[in-house]
Amino acid sequence: MSLIDQIIRLILAVILGLAIGFERERAHKPAGLRTHMLVCLGSCLFTIVSLRFSLDPARIAAGIVAGIGFIGAGAIIAEREKIVGITTAASLWVTSAIGLALGIGDYILAVIAAALTVLILFSRTIFKKEIS
Known about the structure:
The chain is mostly helical. The protein has helices spanning 3-26, 33-52, 57-75, 86-103, 107-131; strands at 77-79, 82-84.
């Protein structure tokens, strides 16, 4: 993989992370733009590095998923009789998977997954207006 390929993957990771993080930021959630951008970038970078050194990509993917689990757990908060932050934790998890897809060079899968994620996150706003 050339340096240009690596740079394109990293830049796309930042852009797709930004697209997902934008909705979380707009909704005033604790994990917003920067967090989603960094999660996507980090997942992409770890994947690129694992491929570069001929490490087992499945192990790297498992490590990334475990690490994101800790970050996601930190986003979930129990408040009185309800739990908040589950959607943010899920969006971080999906953002990490998108970074992994970019890291292996599956641009189409990553873009489609990011578009679906943004659509799902914005659907609450859309449906809330329809229900009201």
